[in-house]
Amino acid sequence: MARLFRNILVQLCHVQIVLFLVYVSSASAKLTDEEIKSFVELNVKNVLQQHKKERDLPNIGLRRPKADPKAEQNDSHPHPFHKPKIVDQIRYSYRRYREMILVRAGAFWKGTNDPKSETGEYPLREVKVNSFYMDAFPTINAEYWAFRAKKKFVRSESEKKGWSWVVDLFLSDETRDHYSMPGSKGWAAVKKAKWDTPEGPDSSLEDRWIHPVVHMSWHDARQFCEFQGKRLPTEAEWEFAARAGAINYAYPWGDGWERKRANLWQGTWPNENRRVDGFSMTSPVDAFRPQNLIGFYDIIGNVWEWTSTAYKDRMVEHDFHTKKAVLKGGSYVDSVNGKINYPVRNGQRMGQKQDYTAANTGFRCARSAPDVDAKIKKDTTTKKPKAQREARLVRKKRDEL
């Protein structure tokens, strides 16, 4: 009833305003008391009819009307959280990108023979690695979306902080003016930049479901891998998988750089990217053919990948070390020769704090394979020794008699 009276009063005010305007516009046009009374009765009648219509509608002012279950849902979003069995559907649709490759135990020369390197990849040293499995692809946006649909209360590091690092060239004018703050050359700290809004609040994952998930911290990567029953690879495992058993190749495919094998920066940093490889930012994880003979994709280029190995600065005393982890592989803002940021190669590494997030940091998962090592050890120990060859009688020559 209170709402009804309020509506009537509003209508009366409207009538008074109309009458005032009519009076001002024409001094000769004067309404009688009967005409004013008829105006008021007409408006009251309209208010009563409107109130009756609103009363007949279900749940008005309380909650959204219940959707008809038989009606088709016209949802333009390809992966809505509220869709039933969304996790199973996504995991089936993108199952190809969860493939893991077995890397058998072995020894290799880790690092790079480049004395000028300041990232700790020099000098070369021999390292032994046990058998393990590692994802053939970096973790993609669709897989992380399914994880967040399953774990609704999980928040990534960039969501907790409220910001993350983004390449300034790819920001819209509105985001640059209202949501960002300049950082180091070419970078900006952007509010609300996270895994599903990579370049700020006005960006989305549209057409990027098979791109690597970015704005991931070391904690985010470890949390995802543990949920999948996996773990982050060590630096030695990652590099051993990249080399595919080769002794000391610079790149996963060999010593010579090949065009269109990785997503890197071409142009002038940070104002121009000529997109010679076809992409300005991240690319689909299968945009290029496998980078080595084992079948790993995007080992170098596209995004930096977290490992479980701690990073230690050589020039800092041990007691003053901060908690950093090793990133491997380089990203789309790096180059072949190192004139733009880091030179990409198998041994390249970068150390960042565990809560570091940026538009070029992602990850892939690994899993130990102790059963494979046990089988190899069993085969080597149970192998029958070669039977000793029996001595043969040799007939002596006549002149020796």
UniProtKB/TrEMBL annotation:
Gene name of the encoded protein: LOC106013318
Location of region: Disordered: 58-83, 374-401
Keyword NADP carried by entry: no
All copies of domain Sulfatase-modifying factor enzyme-like, residue ranges: 98-367
Identification of the protein by name: Inactive C-alpha-formylglycine-generating enzyme 2
Signal sequence coordinates: 1-29
Family membership: Belongs to the sulfatase-modifying factor family.
PANTHER family from the UniProt entry: INACTIVE C-ALPHA-FORMYLGLYCINE-GENERATING ENZYME 2, SULFATASE MODIFYING FACTOR 1, 2
Keyword vocabulary terms for this entry: Signal
Pfam families (alphabetical): FGE-sulfatase
Top-level taxon: Eukaryota
Entry keyword annotation includes Signal: yes
Compositionally biased residues, Basic and acidic residues: 65-78
